[in-house]
Amino acid sequence: MKGLTILGSTGSIGVSTLDVVARHPDRYRVVALTANHDVEGMLQQCQAFRPQVAVMADEASAEALAGRLRDESLNTEVLSGVVGLERVASMPEADYVMAAIVGAAGLLPALAAVRAGKRLLLANKEALVVSGHLFMEEARQHGAEILPIDSEHNAVFQCMPADFERGLARVGVKKILLTASGGPFRRSSLDELRAVTPEQACAHPNWEMGRKISVDSATMMNKGLEVIEACWLFRTSPEQVEVVLHPQSVIHSMVEYNDGSVLAQLGNPDMRIPIAHALAWPERIESGVGSLDLFAVARLDFEAPDTERFPCLRLAYQAIDAGGTAPAVLNAANEVAVARFLEGNLDFLGIPQVVEQTLNAFAVEPAETLELLLEQDHRAREYAEQVVRERV
Ligand code: NAD
Ligand code: MG
């Protein structure tokens, strides 16, 4: 029996994780759940899974939850704030930690799990984008096992030889091919992109996800963040990570070897597959996802990405090439731009513009300490907010 903490349990990944866990009550025990504001969602999860601890990042929501739990005579302990998140990420009862908070807000709790030597199921790609070098180094020092949940990276992990950590060149890997659906606007002209609304951007053709990652998929920043994520997870350089548009989202990514072999992982686009894979690894368990119907899929298409219409991908390569604090600045500016777009205070094409202006305004520094990265994150957010204000 493995104890599991889910950071961000009320979100899209969190709910999918609980769906898989509920199928295997003999294997997994939910130790702690966390959310930001969603008291009712958390209450229902506490009723269904009886965790030892529930954390609401927001103080007032924590108080409200504690009251509701008392009314229902549930004895789940309630904690709040980043301190509470870090506590449940590192508590001894948790063998595994699912990192499914969205954005850089998930960095400190995920890092706490790494420092406690947990098996980390990493969905929160922003954590790695902000602090990749430091994060991987802490994992090595503390013997934490990082298993990727992002479907592309999980696919790459499945296609890699078991000893890939020796170095990709040593194990005969030439390239990582990250597939991208292209999002809802793959065929849209620049004029059409100008008028995109938040609702249109959040309607992804193949995947159901939280709003922030849905917008990232529409701008293709999601793929840019994933290129950076792949560089850290698989210890490789950006030149060895190629993005391939594949609108059906059936191949989740591929690994090319020196001999010309290309291995791919296929499946229905449902996050329960990578979640079940990472929970059970190296075993395999039922995920609740049906068989892939290749006759219904019928064809698999591939295209090169267009960085004219989707400059975010180019900006992400620019940031990882620059290294140091640049990816943290890229991520912070993007989080601000996406939030303002979702509120209706920035147009869709403004997102890459705000990111580019912010990225270019900051001198790159070596990403030596967490404090420096968090400070850059903070300063980049302030700068990006200013850029947004000046546009209106
Ligand atoms: P979501 O918005 O649906 O859920 C986010 C969760 O984090 C919620 O439980 C929310 O309460 C919590 N949260 C939000 N802000 C917080 C804060 N400041 N402090 C503490 N908790 C906070 O997001 P999602 O789609 O589940 O994505 C989660 C992460 O997984 C993201 O990093 C995303 O990029 C990654 N991911 C998601 C998918 C997907 O299919 N949804 C696929 C691959 C990767
Ligand atoms: Mg992905």
TrEMBL record:
Where the record annotates domain 1-deoxy-D-xylulose 5-phosphate reductoisomerase N-terminal, the positions are 4-132
Please name the InterPro entries in this protein's record: DXP_reductoisomerase, DXP_reductoisomerase_C, DXP_reductoisomerase_N, DXPR_C, DXPR_C_sf, NAD(P)-bd_dom_sf
**Record's keyword terms, sorted:** Isomerase, Isoprene biosynthesis, Magnesium, Manganese, Metal-binding, NADP, Oxidoreductase
Is the keyword Cell membrane assigned to this protein? no
Pathways per UniProt: Isoprenoid biosynthesis; isopentenyl diphosphate biosynthesis via DXP pathway; isopentenyl diphosphate from 1-deoxy-D-xylulose 5-phosphate: step 1/6
Question: What is the E.C. number?
Answer: 1.1.1.267
Tell me, in a sentence or two, what this protein's role is.
Answer: Catalyzes the NADPH-dependent rearrangement and reduction of 1-deoxy-D-xylulose-5-phosphate (DXP) to 2-C-methyl-D-erythritol 4-phosphate (MEP).
Under which name does UniProt file this protein?
A: 1-deoxy-D-xylulose 5-phosphate reductoisomerase
